[in-house]
Design a protein that fits this description.
CATH superfamily of one domain: tricorn interacting facor f3 domain
Distance between the termini: 37 Å
Radius of gyration: 30 Å
CATH architecture of one domain: Sandwich
CATH class of one domain: Mainly Beta
Low-confidence stretches: 1-59, 1058-1095
Length: 1095
């Protein structure tokens, strides 16, 4: 229900008490600026208008180091949106910008305006463009393109010139200042710029979602909303404005729509006006917290409305019919906001907060001032267990971005990483509080792997590059501008920034670090209330320099080395560690090596490194100095070797455990060593120590990071001892469930490398049947009865992982027949009739396990595509898969996870030669109007087929993908296709001169189509930059060989990756963390691409 249905058509929502009058009497840079029109001149002391608690000594002063750039200084902006048409996909916009000229000799003003927002001269509508009521001459300047600045289709030439052009000017609506206003400009007096535009058929920044009924009317649930098509902002796509993050202003938005629609916008709702015939209604919002245009958004649609019972300031909106899902999904939101307010010692920065759930949005979370827009797929029923953690993380991220990103905004795109990293960091602390330290450390380790892998492939990530740098960085993209920065680079930059903020927190201490954040927020809130002094609004803008200046001022610590290593320079540290124990000296002789080469993404680390030595008499920490490529240190041991079988050993965590010493060297007191145990550095590391020490580390160490590190090495040790300790880990309920799941995959790796030493049923299968099989007949599953307690949830997620681990067991290249029969039986006899929760994800896990069971046909002696020629095992696989896919079509599972898993089985059957290889079935499920999750899964398989196939069909599939990318109406699908192609290119630049020319996708037609799409300004910026990632992966920095380029690829290029021979990871259906899926770190583990449910 919405307000209308609850309270009648004339019902007025309560006017918010904290909304102050919308007036300005400003002094900017010493110049008086009074708002014109009907705005009265009131000094705004308002609520807390002066500096509170004496925290701001120099109140009314601009923030040091923050300077507003541009031709004008925007003070306030009014936006009127009307004539919203869903069938025509259009609406009218009238805006008035109150601004102050920053130059007395200004001749023209340039505003940002997208190509789908048409000016009066372009459509012939009755709009005008005026300054202080005087009509102006205006024109739209030509927008630079990649192809327009290059004679050859090469990134090296085109991108540099394109960046120079876009850096010089990226505002293309030029308004000439009329002669009668020259004196006003010379006196630097305030002006009002009025612009009328019509937005028609927008291709980016705005999305219309609707379905037409058979009679031509619009079905219920139609909505339109804003989203970000570039990394920083897309407001210019529908609104003439100064679209810069440092141009803060006060806002008033009036949205007129039909009475059955609800309008939601940035700011606070102050009421709505019903028109005479009651067919139309105008919703009035005003944002009195100074906000940049890039954080202004809106959504209009047939929404159901839900207000949190215990927090009336929070309102949630979703298309009609989804109210029950909204209530369950947003239930934890009040606790999330309370946690952030307590953590930051600062109240929420806005009087109200709105959450809108929409369809066809490319990002899971899009945050605007006092408003967050989420994908409708975030909503879930109370019967769905697996979506809970993911949903809470997304809600927390949306709330944290209100503090850092919307309220505190970056001064430039160069500082975008900072607010994004701060919001991610405080979100991760919420995850630690709710889901535990082990989950928090697991996600930090995953971020670390992703950053190291990206830098190893693509090049170093520099968090804050210098804008004045004349020399081009050794990258394929230009990260100093949002229009030329790769989204993959930006996403990993945010991850690296998250790690850097965590490192800074560890270095400063938790309390001093949050004193810094509190200082930034509290000063910003005080200055935001001084609406009569725009000079003070600069305290709401942050740069990397001002942040670290605040760190020094608040904590008294200067950290130039930290900034030089991790902020202003790129790369990650890479350590190779070995040691020997000197029995005579009772010392560990440690050697740490670094290997830094151009292009491998590593930096030469110089500084302290923590070494944690677990000895028989306790855990001892040492600090060694790394000062070169090879560093050596002698560490004194505090224990003596003992010839005992068992001993109680105190651990680093404070626990005492009884350790079986029978396997260790009797002369050495060292049980294991760890380096940088708390991840204080961005690094990857390989430690050489005896196998028994890794076994001790896994068995007795309580830190999940140490356990994961031990698992990575033990999977490379195929011996009975490793097998036994891994089996013990899986069986032990005291281990973190993710470690137990990883241990199952590691055990499979170990068993596959060992000679056949087992007879009968595999131990893992016996374990599974004992835990999850029916008591009367363990061969069959017991009826599902999931219980949401800590212990039972761990068993639930282990229940999903173990079949997938079992399915990877091989003997002579063939899956175990007993395992396949076990999986088919568990699918066939699965019973969820008495379970209060859904088993969709469990069924999907069994289907994924069935997909992994499929072995290549040449090991089975098959290859005949006649159905009757299929073995009975494959017949059962095909039968169960077809049944699951058909049932998921008739009765859809949550997010179609069962259908997605069934597609992966079909893909594996084709890939291994059991059925004809044909992409037609996947194109059927990739078609428009289907569930977006099915579409994404099918597209993932199609792209993966391109990278594995050498058939001529690949060229047609790739061209069809590029056509869909250019024409599909869903921006989420367009972005998904571009991301898939960028991460899984059909071939690489390394192959371009040998196997590349024989690759059917390596044609001049493909190269021309890619270059054309990269230059098409109607495509979203993020999609174009992802295509540049693809172009770079295929052809390097030079002109493609098929277009007359050099025969040998030279210069910077994407590094080779180890090919993944596992099944496609089309869906990470448990706890997809904020960074989404990412490839494994090449030096950290070799089996993680197979861990579907943990990705």
């Amino acid at each position: 229900m919405d307000w209308t249905s609850m309270n009648g058509a004339d019902a007025k929502p309560p006017v918010l008490d904290r909304v102050a009058p919308y007036t300005i009497q400003a002094q900017v840079n010493g110049n008086d600026a009074a708002g014109g029109g009907d705005r009265q001149q009131h000094g705004q002391q308002g609520e807390g208008g002066g500096a509170a608690n004496g925290e701001v000594d120099d109140d009314l002063q601009a923030a040091p180091g923050i300077e507003v750039r541009g031709e004008i200084r925007v003070l306030a902006q009014t936006v009127v949106i009307s004539d919203i048409s869903f069938t025509g996909e259009s609406f009218n916009v009238h805006t008035e910008i109150t601004a102050l000229p920053l130059s007395s000799d200004l001749r023209s003003i340039h505003l940002h305006l997208g190509s789908c927002a048409y000016l009066p001269s372009e459509t012939g509508h009755n709009g005008r463009i005026t300054i202080n009521g005087v009509e102006c001459l205006y024109s739209r300047l030509p927008e630079p393109t990649l192809s327009g600045h290059a004679t050859n289709p090469s990134i090296m030439e085109g991108l540099t010139r394109y960046y120079d052009a876009i850096h010089e000017k990226d505002a293309f609506l030029e308004i000439a200042i009329p002669d009668p206003l020259r004196l006003t400009i010379q006196l630097l007096k305030c002006i009002t710029i009025a612009v009328d535009v019509v937005v028609k058929k927008p291709t980016q920044g705005i999305q219309f979602v609707y379905n037409l009924a058979s009679d031509g009317t619009i079905d219920k649930g139609a909505h339109v909303f804003t989203y970000r098509s570039s990394l920083l902002t897309s407001t210019r796509e529908w609104l003439p404005c100064v679209d810069a993050p440092d141009q803060l202003a006060l806002w008033r938005l009036h949205i007129t729509c039909e009475s059955w629609l609800t309008a939601v916008a940035s700011g606070d709702l102050v009421g709505f006006d019903s028109h005479g015939d009651k067919r139309l209604r105008t919703w009035n919002y005003q944002q009195l917290v100074p906000t940049a245009a890039c954080n202004i958004g809106f959504a209009v649609g047939q929404f159901s409305t839900y207000t949190l019972p215990d927090m009336a300031e929070i309102t949630n909106f979703a298309p009609v019919g989804l109210l029950s899902l909204v209530k369950h999904t947003v239930a934890p939101l009040d606790k999330i906001l309370e946690y952030f307010e307590e953590l930051l010692s600062c109240r929420f920065p806005y009087p109200t907060y709105k959450q809108v759930f929409v369809d066809m949005i490319p990002d899971e979370v899009t945050s605007y001032s006092s408003m967050s827009i989420f994908s409708i797929s975030t909503l879930h029923h109370k019967k769905i267990i697996d979506a809970v953690q993911e949903c809470r993380q997304l809600l927390a991220l949306g709330a944290s971005q209100q503090f850092f990103g919307c309220f505190i905004s970056p001064s430039h795109f160069l500082d975008w990483w900072l607010v994004r990293s701060l919001s991610r960091f405080i979100t991760s602390l919420y995850i630690e509080k709710i889901f535990g330290t082990s989950e928090y450390l697991f996600q930090i380790k995953k971020l670390l792997n992703a950053v190291c892998d990206y830098e190893s492939q693509w090049g170093k990530i520099i968090l804050r590059p210098s804008i004045e740098a004349a020399t081009r960085m050794n990258l394929h993209c230009e990260p100093r501008c949002e229009h030329t920065c790769s989204p993959l680079y930006a996403e990993n930059m945010a991850k690296k920034g998250h790690l850097a903020m965590r490192m800074l927190s560890k270095r400063l201490g938790h309390e001093p670090y949050f004193q810094v954040l509190h200082k930034i927020l509290s000063v910003g809130q005080q200055m935001a209330e001084r609406r009569d002094r725009p000079a003070t609004w600069t305290h709401l803008v942050i740069s990397t320099e001002t942040f670290f200046r605040t760190v020094t001022n608040v904590t008294g610590q200067e950290i130039p080395t930290f900034m030089e290593q991790w902020i202003h320079n790129g790369g990650h540290a890479s350590f190779r560690v070995q040691y020997v124990f000197n029995r005579k000296r009772n010392m560990i002789e440690l050697e740490v090596r670094q290997k830094v080469e151009p292009g491998n993404g590593r930096l030469r680390y110089v500084g302290p490194l923590t070494v944690l030595v677990q000895e028989l008499d306790g855990s001892f920490s040492h600090t060694v100095q790394i000062d070169g490529d090879i560093s050596r240190a002698d560490l004194q041991c505090h224990s003596k070797g003992r010839r005992q079988k068992k001993k109680r050993v105190p651990l680093y965590s404070g626990d005492d455990v009884e350790v079986d010493l029978s396997n260790m060297d009797p002369d050495s007191p060292v049980l294991w060593i760890r380096l940088d145990p708390e991840l204080h550095l961005i690094r990857n590391m390989m430690i050489n120590q005896p196998d028994y020490q890794w076994e001790y580390m896994l068995r007795y160490e309580r830190d999940v990071l140490a356990q994961l590190q031990a698992l990575d090495r033990l999977q490379l040790c195929p011996n009975p001892q490793s097998r036994d300790v891994l089996l013990e880990t899986i069986s032990n309920d005291n281990f973190f469930y993710r470690v137990r799941c990883h241990a199952a995959y590691a055990l499979t790796e170990v068993l596959n490398k060992m000679p056949e030493t087992w007879s009968g049923v595999p131990a893992l299968l016996s374990l599974y049947r004992r835990i999850y099989g029916a008591k009367s007949c363990p061969m069959l599953p017991r009826s599902n009865n999931f219980v949401v307690t800590s212990q039972n949830l761990q068993q639930y997620f282990l229940q999903q992982a173990l079949p997938q681990a079992l399915a990877r067991m091989r003997t002579n290249g063939m899956a175990l027949q007993e395992v396949q029969c076990f999986i088919v039986d568990y699918i066939r006899y699965n019973d969820n009739s008495i379970n209060r929760y859904s088993d969709d994800h469990y069924r999907a896990s069994l289907l994924n396990a069935l997909a992994v069971c499929v072995a290549p046909v040449n090991t089975l002696g098959g290859g005949n595509y006649i159905p009757d020629a299929l073995s009975w095992e494959m017949n059962e696989v095909v039968e169960e898969t077809t049944h699951a896919l058909n049932m998921d079509t008739i009765k859809p599972s949550f997010r179609h996870v069962v259908g997605v898993a069934a597609l992966s089985v079909i893909h594996n059957l084709q890939r291994n030669g059991h059925i004809p290889s044909d992409s037609k079935i996947f194109w059927v499920f990739a078609a428009p109007k289907l569930c977006v999750n099915m579409r994404k899964a099918a597209l993932h398989i199609i792209v993966e087929r391109l990278s594995m196939s050498r058939k001529k069909q690949s060229t047609n599939d790739l061209m069809r993908l590029l056509t869909m990318l250019a024409q599909d109406t869903d921006p989420a699908i367009r972005l998904h296709i571009a991301t898939l192609l960028a991460t899984m290119p059909p071939f690489s630049a390394h192959e371009c001169t040998d196997t590349g020319p024989t690759n059917p996708c390596n044609t001049a037609q493909i190269a021309d189509e890619l270059w054309s799409l990269m230059s098409r300004t109607t495509l979203e910026t993020r999609v174009r930059m992802l295509l540049m990632d693809l172009y770079f992966s295929l052809y390097g920095m030079a002109t493609p060989f098929v277009k007359g380029g050099p025969a040998m690829i030279s210069g910077h290029q994407r590094a080779k990756r180890r090919p993944c021979d596992s099944k496609s990871n089309t869906l990470g259906w448990h706890n997809e963390i904020l960074d989404g899926e990412q490839p494994p770190s090449p030096e950290s583990r070799t089996f993680s691409e197979d861990i579907d449910m943990l990705q």
